[in-house]
Amino acid sequence: MAWVLAALAAWALGIWANTRLARLPRSRGTGLAVPVIFGLTIVVMWECLVRGLNVPSVILPPPSAIAARFAVSTHILWEDFVQTVMKGALSGYVMGCGGAFLLAIAIDRFPFLQRGLLPVGNFVAALPIIGMAPILVMWFGFDWQSKAAVVVVMVFFPMLVNTVQGLQDTTTMQRDLMHTYAAGYWATLLYLRLPAAMPFIFNGLKITSTLALIGAIVAEFFGSPIRGMGFRISTSVGQLALDLVWAEIVVAALAGSVFYGGVALLEKAVTFWHPSQRGRA
Predict the structure, then answer these.
(1) Per-residue pLDDT tens for 31-64?
(2) Are residues 50 and 124 both part of a single domain?
(3) CB 151 within 8 Å of CB 174
(4) DSSP, res 25
(5) Contact present, 133 and 222 (Cβ < 8 Å)
(6) What is the DSSP letter of 220?
(7) Which of 145, 199, 204, 239 would suit a FRET pair with 161, their CA atoms being 20 to 30 Å apart?
(8) Domain, as residue range, for 227
(9) Are 118 and 151 in contact (CB under 8 A)?
(10) Tell me: the pLDDT tens digits for 197-207?
(11) In 3-state terms, what secondary structure has residue 103?
(12) Contact in structure between 165 and 198 (CB atoms under 8 Å)
């Protein structure tokens, strides 16, 4: 009963603190404090309710047990991180987004490709990754190359659609102005259309940054060497080592957040002129 009361107290304290912060003038500090307090409130409530209700660790381990397992398994978690994120997800992300960007330029240069390739890309994007992953694993082997191939399939079409849409986001007046300067296609692309497309391009990069990690982890369920986040999660579930499973989930969540945040910071540096960036604190 004491643990349940502690959970309720943590919830009430978190609500009170965030309510007070919401009344303050908006700043970088308050914008960071609100999600931190919210997250800590959830963790404390999780710990108290699991212990107070005597939830078995094979169902849901408390955060303290997950943290303890994290601390003693850093070498395993690092090895899995390198295999899944650095090799599979990142390489597939670079190849998929880079290929989609180049194809978007080709589609923009030759409009007939848009009528032919975009419907095919839409069809490929609709294919279930749970069905494509084992096929790609059989084609490219059990190491990181097959995981990169799955990531390429997942990120290619969202990046392609966003880039094509961005390259078309210029007004007739802007294009006519470039024509009055006798600018050809490539000059117009470099000095007008690519800068205008940058918010769309970065939107695609942010969307695919999380898809890449998901794709790499899912692909490892269908074949992997004896390392990798997906491999560790699937084997640990079979061993009822749920604390290690949650430790892997924490690593994946942190990696995805850092990945997304890095792209967002790069977007802010490149598109500082855009109204959406100028309006942020």
Answers:
(1) 777 888 888 888 888 888 888 888 888 888 889 9
(2) no
(3) no
(4) P
(5) yes
(6) G
(7) 145
(8) 72-278
(9) no
(10) 888 899 989 98
(11) helix
(12) no
Structural domains of the chain, count? 2
Strands (E), 25-146: none
CB atoms within 10 A of CB 63: 18
Question: What is the C-alpha to C-alpha distance for residues 155 and 143, in angstroms, rounded to an integer?
Answer: 20
84 with 185, same domain: the answer is: yes
Burial label, 117 (beta-carbon count in 10 A; 0-12, 13-18, 19+): middle
CA distance 268 to 262: 10
At residue 233, what is the residue type?
I
Amino acid at 47: E
Residue carrying structure tokens 């960036």:
277
Q: Which residue has the tokens 């070498």?
A: 75
Contact criterion met (CB below 8 Å) for 231 and 61: no
Residue 20's identity, in one-letter code, is: R
Residues 169, 175, 177, 181: what is their CA dihedral angle, to the nearest 10 degrees? 130
pTM of the model: 0.82
